[in-house]
């Protein structure tokens, strides 16, 4: 299972890595995290729920924008 | 009280904000956080201990490098 989310505020590879690490650390059940900087999206595979992703993104200082698709 | 720490991996304003938010959220006693992107340092005022700062920086996906001064 995977889902893609809008995440605003990521502007470089450091931002991307930050969001990736935050989601992996904070959301149980996450298997992989892929950031698309240009699209401003993050694709998460695994069994994490949307609320965990939102909390992880917000805590890392970026803006969660819900499911992209 | 304030202390300045080396933090590697911050390359843009998004990174800076991420580290700032992570430290403010994770470390009790923090009053303010100031990031110097060019120097690669973060100055924290308040009563937070070094270990809390280190954990917050690492969890945000950046590299803690100890006290700068």
From TrEMBL, chains A, B:
Pfam families referenced in this protein's UniProt entry, alphabetically: HMA
Range of residues in the leader sequence: none
Keyword terms: Metal-binding
GO molecular function annotations of the record: metal ion binding
Transmembrane segments: none
Residue span(s) of domain HMA: 1-65
Superkingdom of the source species: Bacteria
The protein's name in its UniProt record: Copper chaperone
Organism expressing this protein natively: Roseospira goensis
């Amino acid at each position: 299972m995977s889902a893609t989310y809008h995440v605003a505020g990521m502007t470089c590879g450091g931002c991307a890595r930050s969001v990736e690490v935050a989601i992996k650390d904070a959301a149980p059940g996450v298997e992989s995290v892929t950031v698309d900087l240009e699209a401003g999206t993050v694709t998460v595979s695994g069994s994490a729920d949307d609320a965990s992703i939102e909390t992880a993104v917000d805590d890392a200082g970026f803006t969660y924008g819900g499911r992209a698709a």
